[in-house]
Structures are given as C-alpha cells and as structure tokens.
Specification:
Elements (H helix, E strand, L loop, with lengths): L8 E5 L4 H12 L3 E6 L2 H13 L3 E6 L5 H15 L4 E4 L13 H27 L5 E4 L10
Parallel strand pairs: 1-2, 1-4, 2-3, 4-5
Helix pairs in contact: 1-2, 3-4
Length: 149
Amino acid sequence: MSYDFSGKVALITGASGGIGRATALGFGRAGASVVVSDVNIAGGEETVGLIEAAGGTAIFQPCDVSDADAVKALVKRAIDDFGRLDFGHNNAGITNTTADEWDDAVWRRALSINLDGVMHCMREEAAAMLLTGGGAMVNTASINGFSDS
C-alpha cells in the first residue's frame, strides 16, 4: 500500500531510532515534510539525513516532551517552517529497569515523559491541527507496559 502525503506535515517524537525513526522515514517516503524530534540530537540528525538522502524533506528540533514550553516550541517550529501540522506521532518515552530499582525520582521522570509528555504533545498538536481543519495523532507505548518487572 502506498500513501501520498505531499503537502502534509508530520511531527514525530522519539524519532532518533526504532519505531519513531521508522515512522519518520515512512512519512518522508510518502511525501510529507517531517519534523523529527528527540532528546538524542545525533540520532535525530541522523534520521533527518536518512529522510533527505531518500529525497524527502525534514528538520530536527530537539525536545524533552516532559517540558510543556519545549513542546510548544516544537509545534511552533513545525508551523513556522512548514505552515501547518497534519500528523503527530507521540512516540517519545523512556524505559526503566526492574521495579525494585526504581526510586521516586526515576518514577516521577518516567511519568513526566511517558504520560505528561503525551498530553503536552496532544494539546499543542490538536490546537495547531484545528487551525487547518484537523489532523491525526497516534500515541505509542512500550511493550514494558505489559511487563511483570
């Protein structure tokens, strides 16, 4: 199946590798302009390079999704550079080790990224998408949600 997302803009968090990178590459192949975001700058820039090498258009904006102001700046960058936002894949997340190794700071950081971060992204993306008639958001989570650890 092929898609034509020419003229559309996709924002992907957690796009320095794995599912986020694969999603960003897929949107790029389909013709969307891609906003690649992650706290891993080298990985994010590598993802942009892969999209561009395949003939796509992409930019990198570092972002810690637990920071509401950073997420506002991320979505603003998408609008400033590409004029709209059509797709959001909220994929940034962190994984902890086993529960017996968690302290309160590790737990709070995980919640801040994995839960608050998704809310920050959805709130800002929805506001941007509504300006141009709508869009689509997908939120992903790790298999670790089903772990017994």
